Each structure stands twice: as structure tokens, then as C-alpha cells.
Amino acid sequence: MHKSDFLFTSESVSEGHPDKVCDRVSDAVVDTYLGKDPVSRVAVETLVTTNLIVLAGETRCSEDVSKDELEAAARAAVKDIGYDQDNFHWEKSEVQIHVHSQSSDIAQGVDSAGNKDEGAGDQGIMFGYACDETDVLMPAPIYYSHNILKEMATARHAGNLPGIGPDSKSQVTLQYENDKPVRATSVVVSTQHEEDLSQDDIRELIRPFVENVLPEGWMCPEEEFYVNPTGKFVIGGPDGDAGLTGRKIIVDTYGGAAPHGGGAFSGKDPTKVDRSAAYISRYLAKNVVAAGLSRACTIQLAYAIGVSKPLSLYVNTHETGDVNEDRLAEVLQELVDLSPRGIREHLGLSRPIYERSAAYGHFGRIPEEDGGFSWERTDIAADLKSAFGAS
Length: 391
What we know:
By secondary structure, the protein is α+β, with helices and mostly antiparallel strands.
């Protein structure tokens, strides 16, 4: 039996979280390559720890990208995040680069040749999701978790949050009644800080960001508002905990409110369906909800390495609409070419637009004029309405 009254929790982490530092650096590398050659192949991971940044992976590009350029991209990303601490500093940290040419075995499966279209860069399953809980058609718990940290980062970069460091985490628990979020029952924020700030000081610094992000009247009870619950968070970032690319895939997507195929996004060029097919799945689901065909929608796509057509397209509207899901799957495939090449061209993915997506979620963002977050457009919603006679 479907449960309509429940609590649901999602977390987010800031751009200064060690794993997010790695995602940011890896996507800076992707943008470096795509800026030189839009059909570059990139699969680069990053590791960070105390005063050390390590890049490893494989690439292919028609133009030379030097180790110096990769190091500069990594340092610039870390500097922009705000790391100039003694034990993790954008300029003083050692940078190691272990990047080599893409495997010819992988390349032959992905590249187009003769009558063969470009194939998927790997096998796998990818999910997209949308719902009407927020204006951007994202689940509410992850949406508010992201925005608390994003607002804190904006203030920190502007110099309006003194004593607070780049490494932060948030967690929001919402009460649902009749499947709708109605209030927060608990909020957790942990943030790196300078030694001279007390737990009470930090609590009052952080409180306005939570209150401003949550809808009016949604603030949790005071005893359920947890700020730095361990009491102290001075040692943070990569000095406090090693980071790796791709370890925050639920933070990157729907906060656990929808399935995940398991593949990370950052550090991968758009021929990798882990990234591009997850983006198009979100795009399709969002357009279904934006068209008013359902209040929630899950899309799954499946691919095989070297094969251009998807092996399957699954649509689930969670009994929130009255459209035939099999027919909806057919219409979506008529409107969008779901081959790797078709996805890349439809969303304009072969350009340097990825570094900005590395923190605060890949979804629920605003489409940008240069093509950033193109998968958040709702430009086929009208066609979907027409196909189903929706007003």
C-alpha cells in the first residue's frame, strides 16, 4: 500500500567538501579539453588529501593539452573554491598528473565509422526524475539542502560570512502529508570554521540561511536544529578527509528520492552515457511534468558499449497522471533521438559547460545562455501536451 504521510531526508555538501573539490577539478579538466576540441574524449579522476592533488585517467584530443595546463586548471578550481589554508592551499599543494591516451579498444566501440553511428562509451543504466514539489520540479528535501549551502557559499565569497570555511554539509528532513511536503522536522548544518568561533556563534551565523531558504513557517523546532553537532569543525576540507571524484552521486541527483544507475558524472565527456543519458533522462522527465501529464515521472535508459540505440526506455508516472506510459515512451523517442550522438546534439553538450555543475546538484538549475544546464529546458513540453491533447 502506498504511504502518503512520511518523513524524508536528503543531504547536500558544499563545493569545499573534499569529494566536491575532486568533482570540480575533474570537470575543470573536461572543460579544458572541450574548449580545445568539442569531440575530445575525457575520463579523468581526482584525489585530494593534505596539500596534494592527483589527477589520473585517459583522454584524446586533436590538440595538445599540456600537464602545465591541467595543473593550472586544477589550481584555479581550488583557488576559486577558497582554499588557501596551511594544509590545503591552491598554490602550495603538490599536483601530480597521471593522464594517458584513451584505450584504442574503447575508442573503436565509441567512434562512428562507415555505416556505424557513434556508440555509447560504456554499458549501464541511467535514471531521470522530476516532480512538482518545487518550482524547478525537483524533490524538496534535496532542493532546500542545496540552497542552504549555496547561499552560505555566496555570502562567504562576498566576505559576508567571516570565520566560516569552504567545507560544509547540510541535511533537511521534511514532513509529507498526502504526498506533499509541509514542514521541516529537522535541519543539520555542519561547517568548517575558525578556532575562535563557538558552537553558539556558528549556530546564529547559519540560522538566517536556513530560515531564508525554507518556505515561511517551515523552520524546524529549535531542538531539531543541529549546527556542528560534534561541537568543533576547524580541521576540514582535504586536510581533514581525503576526497575522490564521483563519491557524491546521490547529492548530485535527487537526494535519494529517485533511483540511481550508479555512474558518476564529473570528469567525463558527453560521449559517456553515465553523464549524457542521465541528463537526457532528467530532461525527458522534467518535460513530462512541465507538460502537466503527471505530477511525478521517472525515466530509465539502458545502453551497451559501442551500440548507438538505447536498449530500453522505461517510463513511470507513479500513478500521478492518466497518460498511457507505453504511448508516452513512444512519443518521447519520436521527439528526441536517444543515441549518444542525438543526445549530445539535442542538448548541445560538446562544449565547456561542466565545471559549474560540479557542486549544488546537476539538476534543478537554471538553463544558461551559453548552453549550461541545457537539460533543464522544458522546450518539448508543448509537443508532449499536443501529442496527448492536454490543455
